[in-house]
């Protein structure tokens, strides 16, 4: 057989295998409907679920005790701290009362050992957080250290906690990589406050605990100049905050009467005091942990079981968020290699570049370059894979890798549309007012930087039960600095 013929056949086999894999990543309109309906069912179940049921694996639907939304006129000077998936941020926020704010911040990358080392304790983590807080005050606000003036702080803690009041909550489980066992079941506000006190910062009072989605929701309400106002005849209303970054999650406003999991007396008390709604942190990363409806490939199973720090949980997040997009691609590529279809220059798996054989070494940023590469011979892709994985590729291989990247990101965005469509449908906000429109505050690296992610969500929304008409009324807005400003807003009402 001639060289050309062999080459064509090899590419043909790879191309066919890749098409089959891509097929598994497609979500049909029927599937969008099925998933959205199941999401609504799961929300209702979660709202009624007793907190103490340890075996419950459904949607957490956590009450946040935030019972009102800002309108942009709030003012004051507050502190905020934000422990996310990759960074810890401390900021001071000055709310100016006119939808505007100014913010000073110090961002630190969480040291690897706090994430990786299983022997690390809560004390080590919170000592580190307090140390960074002190560094921030020393640099930007030494006056508070000297005069001891009291300062309110909101703490954005972007992990599932059982919130018992606006200012307290115990960690249910870590997500996004942390493994520190002794934090489970502990009140994270108490831990942080203790270490602030120990390091001489008792003038700081941590008065509010907020999930990053709650912060994003509130800060979008504060910043949106459309909030409740008439814009060319329509009323635009912020209805949700969501994150598509390292992790994914969303928060929205629910009628208190529907939050059946609140103790009866507490619900009655809230209603009596005139409160009608409460922000709910859905923790939608944990949607369908029993895999009754989520599309599941063998790669998803492997990633969850072999490589993730919380097997069996947050299975929706593992198909959607930035932490997993690259890992899905890595697993597909390894499978194709094992089947003798790609990277034929390597004779065995031991000879592959170690970055390709190491979990979580392929970042979603690399996928974002490949997604939009239209350079001749896909040179951008070649460079990106070479730089990130030290892996040389042929043009034929790159064509197939690009197909895979686009299938993985499309599935992620289509799935991302499911909870949005479900919340819009369940709350009925799209039909609340004639010509009413809604805004969704979004934050996170994927929604902000992944090329086309927002438009893919929009395509999927049009295919979901809200249809093209609902999709047209829905605005996906980037809410910058959500967790800092949002936590400050929570602290303000506390
Ligand atoms: C994970 C966390 C959740 C957070 C989300 C986005 O899903 O469990 O609390 O909101 O990541 O950061």
From TrEMBL:
Residues 240-493 form the Hexokinase C-terminal domain. InterPro entries: ATPase_NBD (IPR043129), Hexokinase (IPR001312), Hexokinase_BS (IPR019807), Hexokinase_C (IPR022673), Hexokinase_N (IPR022672). Its EC number is 2.7.1.-. Signal peptide: none annotated. Pathway: Carbohydrate degradation; glycolysis; D-glyceraldehyde 3-phosphate and glycerone phosphate from D-glucose: step 1/4. GO terms for biological process: canonical glycolysis; intracellular glucose homeostasis. SUPFAM superfamilies: Actin-like ATPase domain (SSF53067). The keyword Kinase applies. PROSITE patterns: HEXOKINASE_1, HEXOKINASE_2. One of its GO terms (molecular function) is ATP binding. GO terms for cellular component: cytosol; mitochondrion. Keywords: ATP-binding, Glycolysis, Kinase, Nucleotide-binding, Transferase. It is an enzyme of class 2 (transferase). Pfam families: Hexokinase_1 (PF00349), Hexokinase_2 (PF03727). Residues 18-222 form the Hexokinase N-terminal domain. Belongs to the hexokinase family. This is Phosphotransferase. It comes from Lachancea lanzarotensis.
């Amino acid at each position: 057989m001639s060289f050309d013929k062999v080459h064509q056949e090899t590419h043909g086999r790879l191309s066919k295998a890749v098409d089959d894999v891509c097929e598994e990543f497609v979500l049909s309109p029927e599937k969008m409907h099925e998933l959205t309906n199941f999401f609504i069912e799961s929300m209702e179940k979660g709202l009624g679920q007793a907190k103490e049921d340890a075996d419950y694996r459904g949607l957490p639907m956590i009450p946040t005790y935030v019972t009102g939304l800002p309108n942009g006129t709030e003012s004051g000077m507050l502190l905020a701290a934000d422990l996310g998936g990759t960074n810890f941020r401390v900021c001071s926020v000055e709310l100016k009362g006119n939808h505007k704010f100014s913010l000073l911040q110090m961002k630190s990358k969480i040291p690897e050992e706090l994430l990786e080392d299983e022997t690390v304790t809560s004390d080590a983590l919170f000592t580190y957080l307090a140390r960074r807080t002190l560094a921030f005050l020393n640099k930007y606000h030494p006056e508070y250290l000297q005069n001891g003036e009291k300062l309110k702080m909101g703490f954005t803690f972007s992990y599932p906690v059982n919130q018992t009041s606006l200012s307290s909550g115990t960690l249910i489980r870590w997500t996004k990589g942390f493994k520190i066992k002794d934090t489970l079941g502990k009140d994270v506000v108490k831990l942080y406050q203790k270490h602030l006190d120990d390091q001489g910062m008792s003038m700081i009072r941590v008065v509010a605990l907020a999930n990053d989605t709650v912060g994003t929701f509130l800060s979008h309400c504060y910043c949106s100049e459309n909030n409740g106002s008439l814009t060319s005849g329509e009323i635009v209303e912020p209805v949700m905050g969501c994150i598509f970054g390292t992790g994914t999650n969303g928060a929205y406003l629910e009628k208190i009467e529907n939050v059946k999991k609140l103790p009866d007396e507490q619900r009655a008390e809230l209603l009596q005091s005139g409160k009608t709604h409460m922000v709910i942190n859905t923790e939608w990363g944990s949607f369908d942990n029993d895999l009754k409806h989520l599309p599941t490939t063998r790669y998803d199973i492997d990633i969850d079981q072999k490589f993730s720090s919380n097997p069996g949980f947050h299975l929706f997040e593992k198909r959607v968020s930035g932490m997993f997009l690259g890992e899905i691609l890595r697993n597909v590529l390894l499978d194709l290699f094992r089947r003798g279809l790609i990277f034929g220059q390597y004779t065995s798996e031991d000879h592959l570049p170690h970055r390709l054989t190491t979990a979580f070494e392929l970042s979603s940023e690399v996928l974002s370059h490949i997604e939009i590469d239209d350079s001749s011979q896909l040179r951008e892709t070649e460079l990106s894979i070479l730089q990130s994985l030290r892996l040389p590729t042929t043009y034929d291989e790159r064509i197939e890798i690009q197909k895979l990247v686009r299938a993985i990101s499309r599935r992620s965005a289509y799935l991302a549309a499911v909870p949005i469509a479900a919340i819009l449908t369940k709350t009925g906000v799209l039909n609340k007012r004639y010509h009413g429109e809604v805004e969704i505050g979004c934050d996170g690296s994927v929604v902000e930087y992944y090329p086309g992610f927002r438009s893919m969500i929009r395509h999927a929304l049009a295919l979901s039960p809200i249809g093209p008409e609902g999709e047209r009324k829905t605005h996906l807005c980037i809410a910058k600095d959500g967790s800092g400003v949002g936590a400050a807003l929570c602290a303000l009402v506390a």
